[in-house]
């Protein structure tokens, strides 16, 4: 009988110390994670998108072709119409989710709260308060397309349209006028 109690004591002793060790290990792990937080991926504000010739031009009855190769890494779509190229930033202006392109409907739809945008980035449905932002497109000396999303860090509440020009915004923090998107890159045929 003494042997049974001893093994029973050992069992409860083992379970007790094991529980304490698990508790302190969990607390220690959480504390270590607090001191070494994960880093969020932030895409570069300027990137080289290759030559404009690499992007398919619309044919037949198509009015615009949406290229999704930069959506995952840069959250940018590049669109080409018959006159040139423009981009749309893949951040819903409602709460910052990434919309998806639906080619059969010719719209971008946000999966979070149902905002819908047309190929120009204009809101055509849902709770989004503003159109999708447009990055600046420019050509480098070697003919590559440079996409700049740097103006996106400006809070839209600080941008006000001037009375004379709807396409110019006054940025109060920077004390300067900014050209309102769309940024468009005309291509020569």
Judging from the principal axes of the Cα atoms, what is the shape? elongated
H-E order: HEEHEEEEEEEEEEEE
Q: Going across the major beta sheet, what is the strand order?
A: 2-3-4-14
* N-end to C-end Cα span: 98 Å
The value of Rg in angstroms is 27 Å
Describe the protein:
The chain is of the alpha+beta class. 20% of the residues lie in helices and 28% in strands. The chain is built from two helices and 14 strands; from the N terminus they run H-E-E-H-E-E-E-E-E-E-E-E-E-E-E-E. The strands form four sheets. A four-stranded antiparallel sheet has the order 2-3-4-14. A four-stranded antiparallel sheet has the order 5-6-7-8, with no helix packed on it. Strands 1-10-9 form a three-stranded antiparallel sheet, with no helix packed on it. About 16% of the residues have low confidence.
Please give a handful of descriptors for the protein shown.
189 residues; alpha+beta; Rieske Iron-sulfur Protein; four-stranded antiparallel beta sheet; 2 helices; 14 strands; 28% strand
Offer a concise description of the structure.
Helices cover 20% and strands 28% of the residues. The chain is of the alpha+beta class. The N and C termini lie far apart (98 Å).
């Amino acid at each position: 009988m003494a042997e049974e109690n001893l093994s029973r004591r050992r069992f409860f002793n083992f379970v007790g110390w094991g529980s304490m060790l698990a508790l302190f290990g969990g607390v220690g792990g959480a504390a270590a994670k607090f001191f070494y937080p994960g880093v969020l991926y932030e895409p570069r504000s300027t990137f080289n998108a290759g030559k404009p010739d690499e992007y398919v031009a619309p044919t037949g009855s198509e009015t615009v072709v949406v290229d999704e190769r930069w959506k995952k890494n840069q959250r940018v779509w590049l669109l080409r119409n018959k006159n040139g190229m423009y981009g749309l930033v893949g951040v819903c202006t409602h709460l910052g989710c990434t919309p998806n392109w639906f080619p059969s409907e010719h719209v971008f739809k946000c999966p979070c709260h149902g905002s819908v945008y047309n190929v120009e980035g204009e809101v055509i449905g849902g709770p989004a308060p503003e159109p999708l932002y447009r990055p600046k497109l420019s050509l480098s000396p070697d003919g590559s397309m440079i996409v700049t999303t740097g103006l996106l860090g400006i809070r839209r509440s600080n941008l006000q349209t001037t009375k004379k020009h709807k396409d110019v915004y006054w940025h109060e923090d920077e004390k300067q006028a900014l050209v309102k998107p769309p940024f468009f890159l005309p291509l020569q045929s």
